[in-house]
Model the fold of this input.
Amino acid sequence: MKVLLVGGAGREHAIALTLARSVHQPRLYCLSEMVNPGIKKLVDSSMGEYFRGDINDPGHVANVAEEVGVDFVFVGPEEPNFHGVPDRLEEKGIPCIGANRAVSELEMSKASMRDLQWKYKIPGRLWYKKFRTYEEAIPYIEEYADSIALKPARQAGGKGVKVIEDFQVYLQEDKRRVKREHAESIVKEYMRGYEDTEYRLLIEERVWGPEYTLHCFTDGRTVLPMPVVQDNKHAFDGDLGMETGGMGSVSCGMNLRYGIDDERSIITEEEYKRSVEIVRMMIEAIQRETDKKYHGVVAGQMMLTSVWGPTVIEMYSRLGDPEAANVLAMLRTDLVEICEAIIGERLNTIKAEFDDRAVVVKAVCPEGYPNKRDLARGHPVRISVDNGTGSILWASADLVDGRVLTGGSRIVECVGTGSSIPEASSVAERLCGAVSLEDGWKVFHRSDIGSEKFMERRIALANMAREIYQYRERKGLLGKRMMWIPGKGLVEVG
Amino acid sequence: MAGILGIYLFDERWDVYNFGVFGLMALQHRGQETVGLEVFGKSRGKIEGEGLVDQVLVNNKTAGHICLGAVSPYPASNGEIQPIRLSENVSLAIDGKILRIDGYQWDPTLSYEGNLRRALEGDSVEEIQEFFSRCRGGFSYIALNGKPEMVAGRGDLGVKPLVLGKMGFEGGIVSSESCVMDIIGERVPISPAENIEPGEVRIFTPLSAHAERLRNCSRRAYCSFEYVYLARPDSYINEIPVYRVRRKIGEVLAEEGRVEADVVIGVPETAVPFAMAYSNSTGIPVEKGFELTGRRVRSAMKPNQIERLKGVQLKLNVISEAVRGKRVVLIDDSVVRGNTLANIVYLMKEKGAKEIHVRIGSPHIVSHCPFGVEVPPEDELIGRHLPEEKIAEVVGADSFRYLSIDGLVEATGLKFDDLCLGCFNGNYPEV
Done:
């Protein structure tokens, strides 16, 4: 059996490892822009081949797949989906795990995702407004918007989102100015080069609560949910600093428990069920809307909010990174068999099993990430422990002439497991300490992720949001927002 | 002492000036004599002067996304207005006092600032960090160099407080007290700020923000006066809510200084929570006894007697209806010389109070503070020289009682050995 993996980041290294442990012993092939040293090793030991090339060019991907004669292709990242790579493969009769162009709209256009969610009245929908131009948004920002999230209307590599809490009127002028300027940079900088969406800028209400990602495998008919994972977006310890693609993620059991034998959890079983139902409804809605089948992974990037309980922040048309490392480390069912079932649309015959172990993933990054990547790029990497077990996943790293150089983003993802999240965290922590750059350029990681204090705070935050949304639910006010606008009367949203 | 503030935002589009102004306003209670705010952006500019924050910081002449500021209770004539320039590139805001520096011979012919300037070598993050790790005393600091990089930390003993707050994805805020985060930071539903541990250093550079533990400092000497008087009741000091301690002090006073009375009155602002808790514990009703004229000031922190009395008399006009014909439990936070208290008792008797039983929410002040809290010379301290019965006679009250030292320790919930009680018992932590 031959499998072509598209993409070369930490997520794809995790996928490659999981495919490699299959009883079907697939021969692994990989196509990506940089040569991931971890995937390269797996490719070589399975007698496959590594191709360096453009993963967003459907023709190129299809050619590689044909040349190799693969049984199926597994698309890791989102951009190939947006570029129609799965569609082209399908045309050529090559089976593919990856959302096609039409259904990946769920992730690609954040505006369409919200439209869909409101049209089909799917719970956990945030109030939003979409704009075609920057000028269109200005009067709106001036007049109404207070605490908001400004987002590029299209998935732009996770960049460009700015959340501004604008509650203190004495600081309003400064905050509105930054909002205006950022709205302008979204349209003019972050969205530059993406001409495939009508809307350019999205403004959403700001909400608070613990975030979590719920991934599901789907063949368009059956939805197989995976354990919930919590990713952490702030660059620095203590949830401080710029937004990144994700600095580390934690999971334990299906609903983010503190430990295997611990009653405490961030998400309750009931909230887990509701979250699964939301993702299922989203899949159904996008399929109805596009008349296309969803073959692959879909994920809800969720938050437990005081307004709705489980709430959709964004949707993924693929596995999250670094969350993939969590769910795949927990997966007990053969991934190759799951893939074959998706391709054959018989996912209903598969029982996806996950173990309860706690998994903590921590990314190690070169200084300069996330905002000054040119400084972060090109540094030779050294790992001072034996990585035979694959618990250090290579991410943005390029194997050039036998040396590994940083690619500007997260260098590696260190995976720790244990009987509780804090225990798994200390394992990951030790691994992080083994990563450095040979030229002395500094690296950083989040030492707080998964610590006891961290877990207690997350649980406390969840409890606080839960108390409020449950109260609203008892009052029949779940998801409803009411405003008294003097002179205009009562305005209800929800 | 002082109130210190550092705001470090990563996105250069922010203009941090107003955040600095309102942040310092939230620290105004820690110093009302001088204000300074230095803003770092494309250039570096400082506004400073004597007076309150809203008197000094009146128009924004600087622009930048990073700032360093301080309010101080010392008149400008006593030294340089903070933040002080330590070297060509390094500015410093400091609360408390550095008493000595390992490996440096203190030069008595130089000013305090002059000695710090001479002792500091270099202006990199590492060098600043190394410098403060050699400093001994009771202090918290925030230093910025020209890059700009920010280094913030507390002396080994943790005498002075320091907390870290956040502003979403935008950056961080370091300040003396957590109330700053409520005013200018992100509203975080669980706790507004993170305590910076003694010996821990927080570093912000354009590319990173992280904590470093210099060494393990297990010995603690948290300033007990923060809980009694210095800090705002809406702050957390060493993760303990100040209001909780003040309420507990009122409860302990109700046990230790129980008396038959008709009404409890707290001297605004600090002693009001003591009075409320005393009332709740004893069942004696609490009333508002005073009305304020003019601006709210911290009268006890005024540098001279006339100013203090002026402050008290304007702040504390007695509402006669609250006290006439009644036996009053009058609660104040502390007694230094006793003159302002005598004034209050006199005014209250004049308005018809039948009996006045003074209860003080702290033990007697008998000694100086080596860490920069202004305490007058020991021969001026009434509590050092007179017993409680005598003080009652001097201030004209029917009875007078301090909170016991054990009572104060109990109210904080901390261990005796983890507190600095030097001003109350003359025993200071070894530095």
About this structure: The mean pLDDT of chain B is 93. Chain B touches chain A through 28 residues (CB under 8 Å). The domain at 244-415 of chain B is CATH 3.40.50.2020 (Rossmann fold).
